[in-house]
Design brief:
It is a single chain. This protein is of the alpha/beta class and 251 residues long. The protein has 2 domains: 18-184 and 220-244, NAD(P)-binding Rossmann-like Domain (Rossmann fold); 186-218, no CATH class. It is 41% helix and 17% strand. Strands 3-2-1-4-5-6-7 form a 7-stranded parallel beta sheet, with helices on both faces. Helix 1 packs across helix 8 (221-233) and helix 4 runs parallel beside helix 5 (153-172). The termini are far apart.
Amino acid sequence: MSEQRQIPPKDGNLANQRVVIIGGSSGIGLATAGAAIRAGAEVVIVGRSRARLDAALEQLPQALTGVADVADGHAVEDLFAELGAMDHVALTAGGMAGGHLADADLTALRDDMDTRFWGAVHVCKAAAPRLRPGGSITLCSGAVSKKPAPGRSVVSAILNGVEGLGRALALELAPIRVNVVVPGVIDSPRLRGALGGDRADLEERIATAFARLPAGRAGRLEEVAGAFLFAMTNTYLTGHRLLVDGGYTLS
């Protein structure tokens, strides 16, 4: 591990910190990148698509970028070797694979496993030796891990695997802190795409669909981004699952 001196974050301040966000070109990752930049961090956003990274830079011109597929362990190792020392890593990459087991697309589910679970393994393995003292890794799961639903059985298993990995690595990689953010239903480009894109009634359908939640609505990207920043900046937080679900798992 690098012996370079790190200035510990205080009160949400990430000044003089280097934050790498895997899956940072859209959705939760892009929102987290913006929040980290506003908190004073130097941010590197990583994704599979150069075109999507370029589009992200139109919103966050201060960010640096890197291209890698987290399912490819060699590509991840090469990326982190090029990036060098850093302070915090957040992994938000993941897919939308699902379906009832009897007729599910197993290839798509394997791809999701490679991205969500093995991607987390690859990132943690490559990042850990390069994190400065006081550094952290924050993984991302989903509330389906806590509240399974028909058609989401394999995804639930994958997400529970990510959470178990995070808790175990909090011990194995200590004093590096490892936590997992667990979002519920979040109003994101991914959700909007699944519900029908830019249809005129989309706002109303989202509001109606999730009004039954205790919070009365779907979550906002910035609310999940805040959980990632909390995990980075609270230096006594490790081995935890931060559930940001508006009460989804209670309903």
